[in-house]
User: Which sequence fits this backbone?
């Protein structure tokens, strides 16, 4: 858990899932004797951690604009080939 040890205020939300997936996750929760809320909380922590680097990059001033400019340059035939890049 990302914020382990801290006493957190918990809020409720509605989650829509296909029936087949919901049945499977309920079966797993039952087998593991864990509440669905704990399973989904763990999954959210994993998802946030996986995207943390992306959020850090997006926080760099001008990063998004520079990426968009680079993509435009490539679409227009500019940029360098892989063999032209320096290690």
Assistant:
């Amino acid at each position: 858990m990302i914020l382990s040890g801290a006493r957190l205020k918990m809020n409720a939300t509605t989650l829509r899932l296909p029936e087949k997936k919901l049945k499977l996750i309920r079966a797993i929760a039952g087998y593991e004797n864990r509440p669905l809320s704990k399973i989904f909380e763990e999954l959210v922590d994993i998802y946030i951690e996986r995207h943390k680097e992306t959020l850090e990059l997006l926080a760099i001033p001008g990063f998004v604009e520079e990426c968009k400019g680079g993509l435009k340059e490539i679409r227009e035939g500019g940029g360098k080939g892989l063999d032209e890049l320096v290690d």
